[in-house]
Amino acid sequence: MLPGRGRDGRAARPARILGTRTAWSAVGDGEFFCPGCGGDRNYQRLAGHRRFTLLGVPVLPRGETAPVVECAACRRHFGTEVLDHPTTTRFSAMLRDAVHTVALAVLAAGGTCARTSLETAATTVRAAGFDDCTVDQLSALVEALAADTGRVFAEPCGAGLAIELHEALDPLAAHLAPAGRESILLQGARIALADGPYTPAERDALATVGAALTICTDDVTRLLAAAARTPS
């Protein structure tokens, strides 16, 4: 074997004298949506401490690193911002609650709660995840909503109902593609149209839904007009 060469004949790599190493310690855990795995996984939140190394041996501290999230399955590290993304389970619950709130808002705005509107709303809410939703349940909830807020049926969307819509839709909108946001608005439009053309109060409620979903006013107008032209 030639001097300075390894067994395979390649030049031998000199040992690294100075370097840095990061030591990680767990400071929390939980469940998150892993971008690497593409699904819900357990994670550990890790804090890092850097040290200078001499011949691979840590000798001097060099400060802390930004915390990271380590997936328990794929072991990849991600920035802590990934924890802002809801898990699949949480996202499904948010979507289900959003559709339910929109359905109640549109029914309350409709005033008469016609059977056709209630049936369309119940079908929409069941499809979103409330499997046991019935027409009678929705009718009772709309009446309770009106009694609780002192709201008169068929009046424009009041402050209380607008707040409820924003509370249900604002956290969801950031995680939905434009088509997903439009889909929720159109589901509300179909409920409103089930018993005839939009009333002014229904349009007002749907405009509030669109605003909470960050859909611009022109697009809301376009989508509602297209829904009205589409046979049910």
TrEMBL record:
Residues annotated as domain Co-chaperone DjlA N-terminal: 98-222
A Pfam family reported for this protein in Swiss-Prot or TrEMBL: TerB
Listed name of the protein: TerB family tellurite resistance protein
Organism: Streptomyces coerulescens
Gene3D superfamilies from the UniProt entry: TerB-like (1.10.3680.10)
InterPro entries: DjlA_N (IPR007791), TerB-like (IPR029024)
Organismal lineage: Bacteria, Bacillati, Actinomycetota, Actinomycetes, Kitasatosporales
